[in-house]
Structure formats: C-alpha cells, structure tokens
Design a protein that fits this description.
The protein has 481 residues and is mainly α. The protein has 19 helices and no strands.
Length: 481
C-alpha cells in the first residue's frame, strides 16, 4: 500500500472512526477536542493526496478533478470544527442542547464529513449516489437537533424534498448504467467514471438525454438551484450555524460536483443533447430569483441562505457555459464561495448568540457593540458581494468577461442579477453593521481564527494566485470540457 492509498484511507476512515468514538463521549470538552483533531487529521491526509495519488480501484478514484474538492472539503470541515467548539459550548450553557444531543451532534458531524469525502472520491456512480444520500441524511437529522417545532418542520421539509431529489438522481444513474451496459458490459465497469467517459461516444444518446434530465433535477435539488431550492432557507435558519456553514460551503459543492462529472460523460457523446444550456438556464434563474429574494429577508441566516442560492447559480452558469476559461472561473468561484460563505456563517453564528436573536430588526450597530464580529461580518459581505480585491470579485470578473466574449446576450441577465443581489446585501449590511445599536448585547467567547483565516485566504486569492494553483485549476478546467 503506497502513501497515497494510506492518505485516502485516512480521509475516509478517520471521520468514520471518530464518529463511533464521539457517540460514546458525554464530555463536551473531550468530544469537542476529538472532533477538531479528527477533522484536522482528515485535512492533513487530504494534503498528502496532492502529491501522492493512489491507483484507481473499482470503487475509489483520486484524480486532478476531485482532489480540489477533497482538499477544500476537509479544510472547511476542520475550520468549522474549530468554530463549532466555541459555538456549541454556548448552546450547552444556554440549554439549547443537552449532553445527549451533544454526543449525537459530534458523531453526526464526522459521519457527514465521511459521506461527503466518499462522494467526492467515488469511482463508482452507485457509490457516489449512496454517499450523497448518506451526507444528506446526516444533515437532515442535524438540522432538527434543537427539537423545536420550526426545526423539526425544516428537517422534514429538507428530508422530503431531498428524498425526491435523490430518487430522481437514482433513476438518472440507473439510466446511465443501462446506456453503458450494452457497450461496456454488465457489472462494475459500467458504473466506473473512467469507463463511462472513455466509451460514452458509443452510448445510446436517447438514454443519456433522459438520464441527464433526471440527474440535473435530482442533484440540482441538493445544489439548491431555483426552483428546487425550497428546503435550503429553512434548513439554514433552524439548524445549528456550523451546519449552515457546512451546507453552504461543502454539501452544495458535492452535489454540483456530481452534475459536473455527468456533464463530462454527456459532452463525450456528440449525438446527446448539450448539457450546458440547461445548466445556464437554471443558473440564471437562480441568480435573478435569489437576488430579488434577498430584499425580503428578515432573518440573517435566511438572508445568506438565499445568497448561497444566488452564488451556486453563478457557478452552475459558469460550468454550463463550459470551455477552459469559464470552467476555470467556476472552479475558482466554488473555492472562493465556500471559504467566504462559511466565514460569514462563523460570524453570523456568534452574532446571533450575542444578540439572542437571528432577526435583522434585533441587530444594529454591530461594529459598535461587537467590533470584531461586526467588522468580520462586514469583510465577509464585502467579499461575497464581489467587491475587489477579494477572490470572489476575481472569479465573478472571469465569469462575466468570458460570457461577454462568447455570448453577450447572456451576460446581460447575469450582470443584472449580480447587481440586484449586490444592492440587497449592501442595503442589509448598512443596518446590521452601521445602524443604531439595537437589541441585547451578550458577551460570547467567539472563535475568530477560522473567520480570519478564511477571509485572509480569499483576500490573498484575489490579489495573487500562485502559478502551481493556476496550472492545477487550468488542468481541471480542460478535463471538464
């Protein structure tokens, strides 16, 4: 077993083993530390995979495409675990969580990281589907962990809509297998990403066309693309804030990654429908719809949930456009959005605890009452709104410029949606950060390091991307077609 195989084993086995241990630990201090250490070890294992790749097997694969997501997934999983340690301590002290639910929370957190890593590393399309479903189910139960009426309703809504989506994705996966079976043969080879891409040009295009429609609708539900987004705002608003950070920063990426993989299979068949226009349509719909909905939000977590819908729409639009530049922009956007949005939720979580409310009307003048949290939130909103010199601005600029170069008519609604969302975020930020101080003001022991680390990375990426990372992303962009 080479070093790459050991590292991949660590990425998958560490969270699984930690979940079993955490289920037995009643102590908050011990469980919080173990949760953080396990997530950190998973991230270190993922870093090893950058230089050492294991050989592809029937079930697992590490290549240039998924290593980007595996590293990002484990890094944000680690930083969110650090944030979670201080956030959950406050929830225990205020009685919102009991020691029993604490054990459940930490065990499910690691189980969720395992499911997402397995989905990203899956070579088998069936294994990937199971892993996405596993990650979904763990987040469903964590959304309802507060056991309030609203939390349980949000969890059920997430479960029902997520189940419909994953059922559609399963049917699409079966259709891909049926298209591959006459060409590749029955069994595992007909479910292998490598074999599917290599032989896709010989598949029945009619089956592929039908399969991609179901796959886009199914996994698109998980991505939160409009009009399949209804579960996402409720899940963000009612679940623990660390789960909101993971949902926006990681789980949406995992679902979109699945769509991208199947898009490569589709483009390899010249007689199949072009998947790009469908992704462009859903992406634009999400951007414009979410942009207007941002004006109507009165809950700070719902506000940034709709912001996630908008940004996932931009990313889906970029990958729908396709080509080296648009794919590069989409990859960069995914990384920048994940880092920025999780940082925003780090700030929002502690702000809600400090104010004792998630309602925007109960917040005001945060830069005065809680300067560190207030200015951290300001920097996060500045970044996610696409203002220079942050990394989101660079990725948005690449998406817009590549669209203008190839199809100026599509750039018009895209820029319109971006401006609508920008105006909403600036309007909401003025009240929350710089308005008259409002509401209660409790002291919280906030974890500032994850927040500042994410924002620093986004700032550096907007100013300077190291040539090895540029070359890496360019290689992945070419592979995505």
């Amino acid at each position: 077993m080479n070093l790459g195989a050991v590292a991949l084993f660590g990425v998958l086995a560490i969270p699984l083993a930690a979940a079993a241990l955490l289920a037995a630990f009643p102590s908050y201090r011990l469980s919080a530390r173990l949760n953080t250490v396990a997530a950190g070890l998973s991230f270190l294992s993922a870093l090893v995979l950058i230089g050492e790749r294991p050989a592809a097997s029937d079930f697992l694969l590490v290549d240039d495409v998924n290593i980007v997501f595996i590293v990002l997934n484990t890094f944000i999983g680690f930083t969110t675990a650090v944030f979670s340690a201080s956030y959950i301590r406050h929830e225990l002290e205020t009685g919102r969580l009991t020691p029993v639910f604490l054990r459940f929370y930490h065990a499910m957190y690691q189980f969720m990281l395992f499911g997402m890593s397995l989905a990203l590393a899956a070579q088998n399309v069936g294994v990937m589907w199971v892993a996405v479903e596993l990650a979904t189910l763990t987040t469903v139960v964590m959304v309802g962990i507060y056991r309030t009426h609203e939390a349980i309703e949000a969890a059920w809504k997430y479960f029902i809509l997520g189940s419909v989506g994953i059922a559609l994705a399963l049917f699409g996966t079966i259709l891909v297998y049926l298209a591959a079976q006459p060409v590749i043969g029955a069994g595992l080879p007909a479910m292998s990403w490598i074999q599917l891409v290599a032989h896709a040009h010989r598949f029945d295009p009619a089956l592929l066309n039908l399969a991609f429609i179901f796959l886009l609708l199914g996994y698109g539900t998980k991505v939160g693309l409009a009009p399949l987004h209804a579960w996402l705002p409720d899940a963000h608003a009612e679940g623990p804030t660390p789960i909101s950070a993971v949902l926006s920063g990681l789980l949406l990426n995992v679902a979109l990654y699945a769509v991208m993989r199947f898009k490569v299979v589709m483009t390899a068949n010249a007689d199949a429908i072009a998947p790009g226009p469908l992704m462009v349509l859903m992406g634009l719909t999400s951007v414009i719809f979410a942009g207007f909905m941002l004006y109507r939000r009165r809950d700070i977590k719902r506000l940034f949930a709709y912001s996630s819908i908008e940004h996932m729409g931009i990313i889906a639009f970029a990958f729908g456009m396709g080509g080296p530049l648009a794919n590069f922009a989409g990859l960069l956007y995914m990384a920048m959005h994940s880092l920025t949005k999780s940082a925003i939720f780090f700030a929002v979580g502690h702000v809600a605890q400090a104010k004792g409310s998630q309602k925007l009307e109960d917040m005001g003048g945060l830069t005065v009452t809680h300067p560190a949290l207030g200015w951290g939130l300001v920097l996060g909103v500045v970044a996610i709104a696409g203002m220079p010199p942050m990394g989101v601005f660079m990725s948005e600029f690449l998406v817009v410029s590549s669209t203008f170069a190839r199809n100026p008519l599509l750039a018009i609604p895209l820029v319109f949606g971006l401006l609508v969302a920008f105006g909403a975020l600036v309007l909401q930020l003025q009240h929350v950060a710089f308005g008259e101080p409002k509401g209660e003001s409790h002291k919280v022991q906030a974890a500032y390091l994850p927040l500042m680390a994410h924002l620093a990375l986004v700032l550096v990426a907007g100013v300077y991307l190291p040539p090895p990372i540029v070359a890496w992303f360019q290689n992945v962009a070419r592979a995505l077609g």
